[in-house]
Specification:
By secondary structure, this protein is α+β, with helices and mostly antiparallel strands. Helix content is 21%, strand content 39%. The longest helix has 12 residues.
Length: 75
C-alpha cells in the first residue's frame, strides 16, 4: 500500500493537465464535479486519489487562496 493516498494540485487548465497525467502515468478518471467555487477532477492509478482543482475566476473563499496564487500543490 502506498503511504501517500491523496494529492491535490491547483491547476490553470484541468483538462490539459489531466490528459497529461493520463498519458504519462496511466491515471484513470474517477469523477469530475463542480463544488461551490471550484471544479475537481479526481483520478487514480488504483492506489492514490489524485485530484486536480481549478477555481472560478471570482473565487474568494479561504480554500481558494490558502495555497497562494497560480498553479501549486493545494494539499
Amino acid at each position: 500500500m502506498s503511504r501517500i493516498v491523496h494529492l491535490s494540485l491547483k491547476v490553470d487548465d484541468i483538462q490539459k493537465t489531466g490528459d497529461f497525467y493520463q498519458k504519462m502515468f496511466n491515471f484513470q478518471d474517477a469523477v469530475t464535479k463542480k463544488t461551490r467555487d471550484h471544479t475537481s477532477r479526481h483520478m487514480t492509478d488504483g492506489e492514490i486519489d489524485f485530484t486536480l482543482l481549478t477555481y472560478d475566476d471570482d473565487a474568494t473563499s479561504a480554500e481558494s487562496t490558502a495555497a497562494g496564487d497560480g498553479p501549486c500543490i493545494h494539499h
